[in-house]
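Reopening this ticket.

The earlier resolution said the output was attached, but the attachment link was broken on my side. Pasting everything inline this time so it's all in one place.
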Amino acid sequence: MASEAVQVNCVMNGEANNNQALKRKHLVSNENIPACYCDVASVDTGDIGTSGRDMFANGIDDRQPDGISKKARLQKEVTIQDMYNNQDASDDEDGSDWEPVQKCVEIMKWFCTNCTMVNLNDTVHCDICGEHKASGILRHGFYASPCSPEVDLIQVESEARQRDKDLQLEASSSNFLTAVGFDEKMLLHSEVEKKSHPHPERPDRLRAIAASLAASGIFPGKCCPIPAREITKEELQKVHSLAHIEAVEFTSQVLSSYFSPDTYANEHSARSARLAAGLCADLASAISSGHMRNGFALIRPPGHHAGVTQAMGFCLHNNAAVAALAAQVAGAKKVLIIDWDVHHGNGTQEIFDQNKSVLYISLHRHERGKFYPGTGAAFEIGSKGAEGYCVNIPWSCGGVGDNDYIFAFQHVVLPIASKFAPDFTIISAGFDAACGDPLGGCDVTPAGYAQMTHMLSTLCGGKMLVILEGGYNLRSISSSATAVVKVLLGESSECEPENIAPSKAGLLTVLEVLKIQMKYWPSLSSSLEKLQAQWGMHCTDNQSKGKEVKKRRVFEPPMWWRWGRKQLLYHILTGHFYLR
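Inline output:
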């Protein structure tokens, strides 16, 4: 728990009132109030009397500096009205001015465990996500109640015991064909420098997902763990430059460092990044070679922003790129990478921009380059002979939900992926497009992620590796990750809806992508024509309605205006010319 102390000196002398603030940060510990930040205001209040002190009645210690004058001590015993009625009553012999009396006011704040948003101490539920101040999400995952931590212990533990009984019955028949890669050493990667707000990419992300999988009886239980291994420099050099690798390794020699204002490292970060990349490589090899059916990489730091030469966007090494090349070494000729993180995977796109053996498809919030990292426009399609092997589906606004994503899968992702015919599929699974994420601002549900995973499982015989990328609302990412792993285990998801109704912005994005990509994937032309017919009819209806309204409101000029001095005005009013 961190505490922030703010000292404010207020001097009131006649009509003057000057405020100066000095901010200091320090760490304190309190087991009862997790992640709680405290603001302490020290106010010098002279001549304010009892009425002034009533404003700071709670948690205030009277502190008087040494050498305070007798007049100031007397003024503590009178009211403001007494001061003005009898200003000379407390005059001292030395006639000196009053000296301020220092008061301390503690304003406690706490940061939500679930979404990291700041809240005042007088509330027990987060104003943003509604999570309880003493949430049990790190112990029980998303099964923990967001409202009352007391209910968690009874309800969750009883449900866990029942799941353990069911697990024992299923364990004998299970073949453990789904692998999970996880190592607790990756929790050591954290931001050392304490700032005014917790960093969203924090170790609690893995803790919440691991707790949810454990509470579900999935891992440990139904999934097979694989031993962690640190990636070698030789393997990393297939993806990153030597200078980049050495820059990441150098961070192990310093307590705290930054690659960019938002991308931190500590003395454990380099090893965490090597473990994450090593787990992804081994999972890809095991799945591609047939030893495992599919897998989930529960790893951090994330990787899809890390390019050939730089770390950025919380990412150090590009885990998906490492896994793709490892799968090819193990026998996969063509690899499909689906990136549904809300941010564009600029690093992955850069690494495979000229590679026809890897198809990269990204669905992300773009807003014409205004959303981080600004790359990933629809016209970015690959280069130097690999045009069409980079497919960007850039949402033009926030609030995109299940219907838009599944609609894009139906009309863009699956048609292109089917023609590509991959031997291995990688999902860069950022869950920051989920409902409630503090950075994403979109509305994808766990059911939506499960449906997309199910749709991709029909490719390449189900050989699929899901790699954790972003996602910063613990309840959202833990429930979404659990839903995805259940699909990997073979649990049936809801049937794919036939008539998906996307938002207008989502439909326009899909049409834009189809127009660009049909040049490289001709099979998209039929889908484009069908959608254009539906959308064109809708536009025609709207335009005709608009023209009818315009006709009723337009002024009908006299015919003789057509040949007189007002012929220009006539043509404008009758629609032959348009003013812009």
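Reporter confirms the inline version is readable. Residues 189 and 269 are 5 Å apart (CA to CA). The mean pLDDT is 80.
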